[in-house]
Structure formats: structure tokens, C-alpha cells
Model the fold of this input.
Amino acid sequence: QVQLVESGGGLVQAGGSLRLSCAASGNIFSINHMAWYRQGPGKQRELVAFITGVGRTNYADSVKGRFTISRDNAKNTVYLQMNSLKPEDTAVYYCNADIIVGISGMDYWGKGTLVTVSS
Done:
């Protein structure tokens, strides 16, 4: 059984920084892409940042230049460094990963971690 567990959320003032982590555990053969999504109050879930198995990254326009996604393949962990946070970044942040278990791949999701940015 595979699990994704996020950590690092919390309350921060506007202009501050937070670093989210998401660790995958279980019977993992390999991990393809990893990503962070978020869902703000009254909003749909949206893609924040994406990193491929070889380290290529992509970001939502709203976070470019402020957020950085990275991964540690040895630890099956993905990170999201969030700088210059704005109140509109307030959301539950979810980790997503395409994980190969045995010979098949599946999309897995974490339960989310809350980030609150005060003005």
C-alpha cells in the first residue's frame, strides 16, 4: 500500500516563506512525475507545480518566480519552497505522484496540508 504524507503547512504572514514536504512510502518500484496542487476557499483544485522523473519543472503563472519544486529520489520526497507568500496563496496543498507499484502505475494523492497567509 502506497501513502503520500504532506507536512510543513501552517500560518505565515504575507511576504513570508514556508517549505512543504511530501514523502511517499510503501511498496514503490519507481516514481514518475510528482506535483503539488492546491484548493483555496470556494475554489477548484488547481495545479501549482509539477516535476518530472528527470527533474523538468512547470509552474502555474501565479506562483512563477516565488515557488520552487524539487525532489529527492532517494527519499521518495517532493518539496515545495514557497517564498513571498500572498494571502491569495491560502489553500489546502495536496501532493500528487504517479507511482509504479509492481508493473502498473497509478496516481496517488496525499490528504493535504493547510497553508494560511495572513495580510
